[in-house]
Amino acid sequence: MQTQSDVGLHWFDPFGTTDFQNLVSTPAVDYRAAKKRILFWDQEPLHIEEINKFLEKFINEIYRVPRFNHHYPIILVTSEYDSETVQQVSDTYNIQSSYYFFHAWAALDWYRGYEHSFLSIPFAQRNPKYTFLCPNNIIGGQRKHRLELLSELVDRELVSSNLISFPNICPYENRTVAELCKEYQILMGSVDLPLIIDRNINHANNSHKIDMWKLADQSLLHVVTETVYYGRKSHLTEKTFKPIVMQQPFMIVSCRGSLEYLKRYGFKTFDLFWDESYDDVDDNLRIIKIGKVLSDLNQLSSKEKAQLQRHLVPTVEHNFRWFYSKDFEDLLWKEMTGMISRW
Questions:
Q1: Comparing C-alpha atoms, which of 95, 99, 110, 81 is closest to residue 15?
Q2: Residues 258, 252: contact at Cβ < 8 Å?
């Protein structure tokens, strides 16, 4: 039977960092003698170069042996489901992996109490002026897809008539849109940056807040530009839960299968009202299909949009109620305790 000192727990502090110097560990009687180590990489997605570099140092610091042909009693805990990156890391280092929906727990904590607030007009009572709301802040750090989406929206002439925020300089990397587009070989049409709709309230360090209530009231739907987009994995963050809490329909710009992934947790999407086949196409086509759907919705008359809004109400209300339900929390709890029981 393992004792507390047999297991070493490792995580990162402050929130959102994956730097080795920010690794926090539980104290043990003999730190290097722990028989099992559980590494929580559950806040951020895995990027293969970054996690490889980290594990090389982590293994060297603890085990002092070459990594190849050796079994390390490490369990890598992530918030990535069916992830090719996690599989590659597990195979390379001969370690186990575990998964739970960390960001759902974070959203339940951060957005608690909003179901009792009066910050938002109920969706059925709104009179939206715009087709969609699409906030963006960080555009560097392997977020090429946000630039590609902006290029698509510019080409379809959807920018000036909708609520889109977009910086000219990435606050994370301090690089301009022009520099990033050159690196990624993206042809960006004429657009006057920065696009400001939210007075900089959508900064990354405000992920735990929702300050876009009035903007949500003015928009028919919310376009979520998630953190990751490329490759086989499912990784949704608190960004996806913001429109649910603000009682908005949504489209998700993320990895293939993201809508199906969300449905696994009891939420409903909007395939009865617009084409959601974008969720099941290759990375190089998904944004184009999203742009086509947004363009079609944008061309609807005011009467057609009002009619669509009425039809959307039951799905929007279901998602809002489900997020704040005990059943949703119980589902997450069962998933997490099931994971722990396998350790």
A1: 110
A2: yes
Kindly report the length of the chain: 343
Q: What is the mean pLDDT of residues 167-190?
A: 95
Beta-bridge partner residues of 97: 76
Is residue 51 exposed (0-12), middle (13-18) or buried (19+ Cβ within 10 Å)?
buried
Q: Give me the residues paired with residue 96 across strands.
A: 75
Tokens of 306: 């009002």
Rg of the chain over all Cα atoms, to the nearest angstrom: 21
Residues 163/132, Cβ–Cβ less than 8 Å: yes
- Structure token pair of residue 215: 């903007």
Give the confidence band of 66 by pLDDT, cuts at 50, 70, 90: low
For 142-146, the CB contacts below 8 A with 24+ separation are 142/47, 142/228, 143/225, 143/227, 143/229, 144/180, 144/184, 144/186, 144/229, 144/230, 145/225, 145/229, 145/230, 145/253, 145/287, 146/225, 146/253
Residue 109 makes CB contacts below 8 A (sequence gap 6+) with none
Q: Evaluate whether 165 touches 132 at the Cβ level (below 8 Å).
A: no
Report d(CA 252, CA 248) in Å as an integer: 12
DSSP assignment of 26-85: ---SSGGG-SEEEEEE-SS---HHHHHHHHHHHHHHHH-S-STT----EEEEES-BS-HH
CA diameter of the chain = 70
The C-alpha atoms of residue 61 and residue 37 are separated, in whole angstroms, by 13
Single-letter amino acid code for the residue at 343: W
The pLDDT confidence band at residue 26, using thresholds 50, 70 and 90, is confident
C-alpha triplet 77, 228, 183: angle, nearest 5°: 130
| Band (202; pLDDT cuts 50, 70, 90) | very low
Q: Which pairing describes strands 219-225 and 250-253: parallel, antiparallel, or unpaired?
A: parallel
Of the candidates 322, 275, 317, which has an alpha carbon nearest to the alpha carbon of residue 104? 322
State how far the Cα of 153 lies from the Cα of 288, in Å rounded to an integer: 9
